[in-house]
User: Which sequence fits this backbone?
């Protein structure tokens, strides 16, 4: 009888981990030749032998062995059938989980390829708004004062919501960028704990132009971090 296989204990953090662990256990069971029926039979026989000897110490070794064999065969057959049914259910469950995982991956792939909610709602946007959505796909922000779009139309909350965008208005220019990018920029600026305009501009990275425009109009101020006046931008 081969030695029991060591089981790695630990937390399976993802469905992929669980499936991989199950496949690894099945592979090792096949490769190491673990005979579960023989193992069960030996355990049952030994248990029956001890029980028979304890129940009637006067029984001969031959009688004890015969009783043990009868009992162990019955127990082994019952347990073997139970294991077979359990394993079949486990295999079916693993197959179902694998199929669900594959469906989820396909849904994620389709969602990513479609570009998220703003692209899916493009058909409900006017032509000029669809143009802005395309520009935002390839640029971190759009200079609205350069693309010939009426900024009053863009500041419509419904349009901004569908575009998932924010409009920042200064005397030198009007800018549009994704709402998440704007929120991340505000967070980075709040994290600058020195009253140094150059440091704030450096922190802005690719949005430095917008930050400098806000500074020129005194729409960006320092108060334990750099903060933007609420009147400087329009958000959905």
Assistant:
């Amino acid at each position: 009888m081969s030695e029991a296989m060591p089981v790695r204990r630990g937390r399976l953090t993802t469905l992929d981990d669980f499936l991989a662990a199950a496949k690894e256990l099945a592979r090792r069971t096949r490769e190491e030749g673990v005979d579960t029926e023989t193992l069960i039979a030996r355990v049952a026989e030994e248990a029956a032998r001890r029980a028979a000897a304890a129940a009637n110490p006067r029984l001969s070794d031959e009688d004890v062995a015969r009783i043990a064999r009868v009992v162990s065969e019955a127990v082994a057959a019952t347990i073997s059938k139970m294991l077979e049914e359990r394993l079949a259910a486990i295999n079916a469950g693993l197959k179902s989980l694998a199929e669900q995982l594959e469906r989820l991956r396909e849904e994620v792939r389709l969602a990513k390829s479609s570009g998220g909610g703003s692209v899916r709602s493009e058909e409900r946007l006017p032509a000029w708004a669809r143009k802005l959505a395309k520009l935002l796909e390839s640029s971190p922000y759009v200079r609205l004062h350069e693309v010939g779009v009426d900024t009053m139309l863009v500041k419509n909350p419904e349009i901004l919501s569908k575009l998932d965008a924010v409009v920042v208005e200064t005397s030198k220019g009007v800018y549009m960028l994704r709402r998440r990018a704007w929120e991340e920029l505000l967070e980075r600026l709040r994290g600058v704990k020195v009253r140094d305009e150059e440091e704030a501009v450096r922190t802005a990275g690719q949005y430095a132009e917008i930050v400098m425009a806000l500074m020129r109009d005194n729409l960006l101020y320092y108060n334990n971090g750099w903060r933007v006046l609420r009147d400087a931008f329009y958000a959905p």
